[in-house]
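Work Package 4 report. The design task specified in the project plan requires that, given a folded chain encoded as structure tokens, an amino acid be chosen for each position. We show below one input record used in the internal validation round.
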């Protein structure tokens, strides 16, 4: 019997990375196309302007952004990203930041 070298670490890492990317893309495609009342959904909504008095008071005013809602069974996650915040990132005065 001749000695046969095993699979290199580089090949294993590439296969693991590609398998992970395929799994993530499959979950994203299933979540984005699922019905809203399904057990797993991903909802992406553009948010162009949020200038109501309540969002200004809570420092959530923004001009351009993206709302992401992920529902997995009873777990509901919400993420909001904004490109142009219209409110200061903190409510503290500059003298009290340190």
């Amino acid at each position: 019997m001749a000695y046969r070298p095993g699979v290199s670490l580089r090949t294993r890492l590439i296969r693991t990375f590609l398998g992970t990317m395929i799994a993530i893309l499959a979950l994203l495609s299933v979540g984005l196309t699922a019905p809203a009342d399904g057990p797993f959904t991903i909802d992406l909504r553009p948010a162009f302007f949020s200038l109501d008095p309540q969002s200004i008071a809570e420092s959530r005013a923004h001009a351009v952004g993206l709302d992401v809602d992920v529902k997995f069974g009873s777990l509901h996650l919400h993420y909001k990203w904004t490109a142009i915040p219209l409110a200061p990132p903190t409510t503290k005065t500059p003298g009290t930041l340190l």
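The chain has a mean pLDDT of 79. Validation will be extended to a larger panel in the next phase.
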